[in-house]
Amino acid sequence: MHCPFCGHEDTAVKDSRPSEDGSAIRRRRFCPHCGQRFTTVERVQLRELTVVKTDGRRVPFDRDKLARSIRIALRKRPVQEERIERIVNTIVRDLEGSGDSDISTTRIGENVMAALKGVDAVAYVRFASVYRDFREARDFEDFLGSLEVPKP
Hints:
Elements: E1 12-18, E2 24-30, E3 37-43, E4 50-52, E5 58-60, H1 63-73, H2 81-97, E6 102-104, H3 105-117, H4 121-131, H5 137-146
Parallel strand pairs: 4-6
Antiparallel strand pairs: 1-2, 2-3, 4-5
Helix pairs in contact: 1-2, 1-4, 3-4
């Protein structure tokens, strides 16, 4: 592993531990050349996924992009980072386990919507507004009218 600070080719692993849900291994590393410390994460990848965009373009699946969009929807909401990681891991495992290497953006979006609906209603609406391309207040009104939110 190259050091991200100085580019030295050999770094040492100081500590390894599994993530909370066991889906990844976090390794704390040390560069003997510059003395900096950094963390790497290893995940199992069952297959290479390709995202098929609505315009037909094909791009490699980006787990970080999925996680970023979920974090944006959940920004300033009372959801712990570990919960977000579990959501992302569940969606990725579902996509990898589907047997298909080509995944439509629609399928990804629907998986995220289903996950967020069970976690936080505000995040669900936030994500839906972007995913379903709401253009005016009426779009929100129609969507909220169809939303069944349990009363506290």
